[in-house]
Amino acid sequence: MTQKIVHNSPSHQIEKMKNQHKFNLNTAWKFIKEDVNEASNPHFDDSNWETVSLPHTFNDKDTFDNFMEGGHNGERSMYTGKTWYRKTFQLEEIDKGKKVFIEFEGARQAADVYINGKKLEGKSENGFIPFGYDLTPYIHFGTDKENVLAVMVDNTFPYKAEGTDDVLSWHDSHWHPTHGGLWRNVYLHLKDKLHITLPLYSFLKTQGTYVYASDITDNTATITVEAEVANEYDTAKQVDCVSDVFDRDGNIVLSMKDTRIVEAGKKILFRSDAQMKHPHRWSPQYPYVYTVKTKLYTEGELTDDTETPLGIRTFEFTSDQGFFINGQPLKLKGWGQRPTNEWAGLGAAYPNWMHGFMFDLMKDAGGNFIRWGHSAGAPVDIELADKYGLITIQPGVDGEGSTVGGVYSDVAYKIRAQAFRDMIIYFRNHPSILIWEGGNQSVPEPEAKTLRAIADTWDPNGMRAYAHRRSNLTMADYIDVSIGTEGSWELKSKGKPIVEGEYNREEAARRVWDRYTPGYENYETSPGSAYNLTSEEFAKNQAKHFEKISHPAHCGGANWIFSDSTSHGRVYSEVSRVSGQVDGVMLPKEAFFTTKTIYREDPQVHIIGHWNYKEGTVKDIYVMSNADEVELFVNGVSQGFGSKSHSYLFTFEKIHWESGTIKALAYNQNKEGIAVQEKKTTGEAAAVKLTPITGPEGFKANGSDIVLLDAEVVDADGNRVPIFEGHIDFTIEGPAIWRGGYNSGKEGSTNHTYLDIEAGINRVAIRSTLTVGVIQITAVVDGLKTDSISVESIPVPIEHGLSTELPSLQEGKLGEEPPIGNGPSESSPLAETEAEESQLITDFSYSGIEEVGGVKGTVNIGDRIFIDREYEFQFLMEPILGSDYIQLANNEKNYKALDLIHFTVTKEADVYIAHDDRLSRPEWLLEDFNETKRKVIVDETLHTVFQQTVQAGTTLTLGGNQDETNETNCNMYVVFVKETVS
């Protein structure tokens, strides 16, 4: 299909473009998926290259289509290597003499940038943090002169820092899918030589504006604006820097000014402050964001302006009473999410409004919190968190541990530290960010010291906390908050508050309702799977797992993860890691709705599953509700009240299925009905129903916009048939590119004009081209009535390769402004610290499925080995006799995790691992422990003892019992710790 750029912009938009100084550079790039000699040459012929628009990934066609490899590796059967992008644009002659900057919101994994054949200094290798360049010395002005931008983008795996053998650990599908490309927005900035700098430290060495509130009281707040101003004229300039604070209605509520002399060729920091009266406070319930517009004047002439968000809030993380914002207690409830936000059919690159689509889901479910793991969320995601009211943990770039496979590297760490600095400078004005995350694990002390210093240097007035996940004793001197895992609370004894980073890491696909649904009666996941859950089991387990963070002293935190991901895979029979509350096209699972009953404050009730079963089916029915009691009805007949467990789960045993209606009625303490839900038995499948979803401004012909299409199978009354599974074919006509969807448990299902309906519905995507027109889509399922819809793409203003239309964002709902609270109580007792039998092992945490016995002191012959078996220690030789030990569950012998056990040893000690001789040794055991000749007998089976001597304060993280194998005739390993005798 021939694509052309539409030049039918209204005249007023063209005039706006001439006065505008930020332009959208996303449209109409040339792209080739190979390394091409001379591609940076401006005269190179790229006419046979593909035309693409940004955001773009070259892995949209080869992802979500292969089963996870297991071993936490994620999907690796995709293109990795060097690619090239080229973009041609022109600038007006009238702009000659201005400064020209380019801003990339991100490039994965690495990028070299050329302008008109000149390679720009600075290679971006972190993949996630915005960066920019000064193009001015190499730019041609005049619409008859082309400027050619060329970018080499490399997602080679494993990616090594340029000129070294140092692998950058976060560029790994273990942590983030290796989707390469210019996967975020790109902007061109035209500025006067006297200008406010951009917050792009690499590779401009500039910091932009820094806006913050201090001395916040019930009635006032001091607002400070710091703006870095550059004078690139040949003469000094007297400059007025004026900052106006606008409320949400566009009214100026505060003005301030600073006047300075800026010498030629210098940059200085302007600073002004003023007191605001009756400020609105930002909070998840009331995400009020002011806009600060800063302008530069010299000799009365405006030379530059910029806008910065401002949110006024106070907050406190406490170790005994949880989290407070604006003096009000608030339990943090939300999700961890990959910063790639990958989507089947689209990969990690799609328009801004689709990020808003995800935030709408999060907010609807009652979420107020998000942790980006383990690298920085995108600019659009942080801005949306501001607008929607999601408190955010923002990291820099990280995998886990130190910089190269957990081992320190000067080269890799330098890149990581610079990325952390760049991230803070870029995002420090966003009110939603309350925590800077220094790492997904503890790091060596020099690293912790450096990262903490970066946060303190570049955000000294943001009041934000600094944190690490899995913090050891060394980290106690540097962190403000500990980020937990599966309910762990590291450094509790040191008084560090806890925010959960990864609870409920179970997995279940959306399509698998339960073991009573036709076709799934004998459902099992693949051999070697870490979990064997149906959607029903995954959904009801949300209540059990939430208990891990429900203690009033716990600040709350993140359910792991929000959407299914192609990274960190553990189940070979799935094309993604199915830990999400929604699937790979963000269709909600039952777990989404049950989490909603926990997270929302208004009355909620949800019947897990459907009501379409075979005659004679008798099964337990599970209902989740935040009410006090729930009564169940089948065809109007009461089945009684459910037994309540885990605070939110109501179980109704042995309910006989009858065609008709099942209803759950929730009651408060006064026996008043406060919430109700009904589900009905649907009729036979009769028709296909298509529903388009576009951005709030319609389907734009910019080459990168998306229309989503929900394809349902419905009965004669238009109700979705929840158990329908079957083949569906699509046809498409008009100026658009079919991107399709996927099937979660089926290889090779992406990028086709056909797929399978799962649980009555599936979702596909269609990408726009640069041509305006009507797109007609028809969906056919054999034996059912077909459906057709049309979607019209609309023009976008493009002139000289630039667009005046910047990517737009949805606005969150403001709600009612809550009162300001009094904060933590001074007389509240400290949170209870559970007494551990061991004085040698502290901060023990466990991320497996089963309950564990925990830490036991002074092991002797006859003690119980596992909590779920009657096995006893029959013989224990010195030096193991008298050790402290960890009592696990033997049922975890096949569970696979990298961080199954985590604990700190308080004194110099020997750590012993007794591992079953029938098993291959896991990699972590061989790397960190030495094999000895000692043996331990477990159920008449020999276990070889491995040993490591550690110093006081050492924190250990132990992995699973097996790596790739799934041997069932074996035992779980046993951990012993004994103080070293001098």
TrEMBL record:
Keywords: Glycosidase, Hydrolase
Disordered as annotated region, ranges: 809-834
Beta-mannosidase-like galactose-binding domain mapped to chain residues: 82-165
Residue ranges of domain DUF4982 in the record: 616-672
Domain Glycoside hydrolase family 2 catalytic, first and last residues per copy: 320-469
Matching InterPro entries: Beta-gal/glucu_dom_sf (IPR036156), Beta-mannosidase-like_N2 (IPR054593), DUF4982 (IPR032311), Galactose-bd-like_sf (IPR008979), GH (IPR017853), GH2_Domain-Containing (IPR051913), Glyco_hydro2_dom5 (IPR040605), Glyco_hydro_2_cat (IPR006103)
Superkingdom of this protein's organism: Bacteria
Domain called Glycoside hydrolase family 2 immunoglobulin-like beta-sandwich: residue spans: 211-313
Keyword Hydrolase: yes
Gene Ontology biological-process entries: carbohydrate metabolic process
Family: Belongs to the glycosyl hydrolase 2 family.
Protein name: Glycoside hydrolase family 2 protein
Native source species: Niallia endozanthoxylica
